[in-house]
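Worked example 3 (structure in, sequence out).
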């Protein structure tokens, strides 16, 4: 069980008060001398909290986008692998192709995020085409058209289909975001995906073109990116700064994409681009005079490294099946702008009740001092407890856990001291090496539990025969060693006989316990503990 300090000792009022008074006096003096820097630091902390909240919203937004686009790509993959779709690709008879209209219509009605499905042959003819009610058959923007206009789109994007025909089945080709008119809804952002469809022989015979409505995928973004108790403007932009989504009312009108009121000016946008795309930062913030605070992050929901698929061996691996048709349109930029007015409303001195400023500050200082005093007292108590715990661990490290006797390490340290004393004063010193006879057979026949009981009984019997100045230690296994200061050989032999008789008197079950005892005395000045131990053995 891990060691924990005794926290209840930190709550003693007298000790806590002794720590609190000096700290509160110091902090109160510093506050009186530097109240305005403190107010400034509070405002900075408020701004940091606001920035952290916005960055948390951006992270949640990225997770939501990655998941929703992953679901969409998985849907399209499932559709392309349906048995009826495979039958129509292998044998494109009129009846089989007609069934696809119903399948495509069902998916559009069920999910609400697809505007059109088309199956195009190599001649460029849409043999199957199903369009959502209220949407004119969508066509991809021409090479010259930008993704930010919402006018009439009359030309196909030839490179999208050309790229799809050049790829094997199962891979995706993705267009950049473009906008299209939807009846009674204004301008809708769309994304087109082209999926090559191969027959049973592996030859690509068709391309399934899917138009994805981005509004259903982005519908949660306004809620996610909205900050609590702070008026903020949010937007999702492409890498060129073209608007994809916003919380500004009416942004889906034709003029909204490039007319968003919160869009940063050119210099600010270049700074954002530099941070995200040149410094390769995933997120950042920028405080701009007269515009406010911009918090931004990049996201690429079609990043191949973030889309996971199941391989044939059951292993989850990154998908390599997403190819962005126009890389300059990716990644997207998630942007939150907190206008200057919103920032000023959150300034400490600009809020109502500023007359109570001093009271609040001094109370805060007292609370801070109390927290610091508690933390300091807790640290002291923790240090005291840690020292006590360390002493206990040191004792455990020097003691045999079974018998409670000193272990080999402890005895070697004590023997070094006794040998040094013998060298200086020539006081007799003897060593007994005790070895339990046939101990291995005891463990083999009766088990280790009985063997442990024998060791404990042996150590207690021997300890009872020794003087207070003698030391009995477990040397290892069934070997024990007794260090006998101020003992000559004759006295050591007498003690050894007493120990032998005491051990013979031990009664455990039907066991007869005996011990062999070796005796050694110090007779030279080498100071080496190993020599007498070797002789005693």
């Amino acid at each position: 069980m891990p060691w924990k300090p005794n926290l209840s000792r930190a709550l003693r009022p007298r000790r806590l008060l002794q720590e609190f008074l000096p700290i509160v006096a110091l902090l109160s003096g510093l506050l009186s001398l530097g109240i305005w820097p403190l107010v400034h630091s509070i405002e900075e902390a408020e701004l940091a909290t606001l920035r952290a909240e916005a960055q948390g919203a951006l992270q949640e937004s990225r997770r939501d986008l990655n998941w929703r686009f992953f679901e969409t790509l998985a849907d399209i993959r499932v559709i392309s692998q349906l048995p009826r779709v495979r039958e129509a690709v292998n044998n494109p008879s009129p009846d089989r192709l007609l069934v696809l209209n119903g399948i495509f219509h069902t998916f559009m009605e069920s999910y609400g995020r697809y505007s059109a499905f088309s199956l195009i042959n190599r001649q460029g003819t849409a043999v199957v085409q199903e369009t959502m009610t209220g949407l004119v058959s969508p066509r991809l923007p021409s090479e010259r058209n930008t993704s930010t206009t919402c006018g009439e789109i009359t030309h196909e994007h030839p490179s999208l289909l050309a790229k799809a025909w050049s790829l094997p089945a199962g891979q995706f080709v993705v267009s950049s975001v473009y906008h299209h008119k939807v009846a009674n809804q204004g301008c809708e952002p769309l994304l087109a995906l082209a999926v090559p469809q191969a027959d049973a022989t592996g030859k690509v015979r068709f391309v399934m073109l899917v138009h994805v409505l981005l509004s259903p995928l982005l519908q949660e973004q306004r809620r996610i990116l909205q900050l609590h108790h702070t008026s903020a403007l949010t937007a999702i932009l492409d890498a060129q700064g073209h608007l994809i989504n916003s919380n500004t009312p009416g942004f889906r009108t034709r003029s909204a994409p490039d007319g968003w009121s919160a869009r940063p000016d050119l210099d600010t946008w270049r700074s954002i681009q530099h941070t995200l795309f040149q410094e390769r930062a995933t997120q950042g913030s920028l405080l701009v005079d007269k515009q406010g605070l911009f918090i931004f992050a990049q996201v690429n929901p079609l990043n191949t490294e973030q889309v996971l698929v199941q391989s044939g061996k059951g292993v989850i691996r990154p998908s390599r099946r997403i190819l962005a048709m126009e890389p300059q349109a990716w990644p997207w930029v998630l942007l939150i702008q907190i206008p200057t007015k919103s920032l000023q409303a959150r300034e400490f001195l600009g809020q109502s009740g500023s007359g109570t400023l001093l009271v609040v500050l001094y109370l805060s200082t007292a609370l801070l001092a109390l927290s610091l005093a508690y933390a300091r007292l807790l640290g002291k108590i923790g240090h005291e407890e840690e020292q006590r715990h360390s002493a206990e661990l040191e004792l455990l490290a020097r003691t045999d856990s079974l018998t409670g006797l000193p272990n080999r390490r402890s005895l070697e340290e004590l023997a070094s001291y006794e040998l040094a004393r013998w060298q200086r004063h020539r006081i007799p010193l003897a060593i007994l090496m005790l070895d339990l006879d046939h101990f291995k057979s005891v463990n083999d026949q009766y088990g280790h539990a009985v063997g442990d009981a024998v060791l404990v009984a042996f150590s207690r019997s021997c300890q009872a025969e020794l003087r207070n100045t003698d030391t009995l230690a477990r040397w290892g296994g069934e070997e024990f060693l007794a260090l006998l200061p101020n003992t000559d050989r004759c006295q050591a032999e007498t003690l050894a006989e007493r120990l032998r008789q005491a051990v013979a008197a031990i009664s455990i079950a039907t066991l007869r316990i005996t011990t062999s005892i070796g005796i050694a005395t110090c007779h030279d000045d080498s100071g080496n503990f190993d020599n007498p131990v070797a002789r005693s053995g």
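Notes: The first strand starts at residue 114 and ends at 121. Residues 140-148, 151-155, 250-261, 306-321 have pLDDT under 50 and may be disordered.
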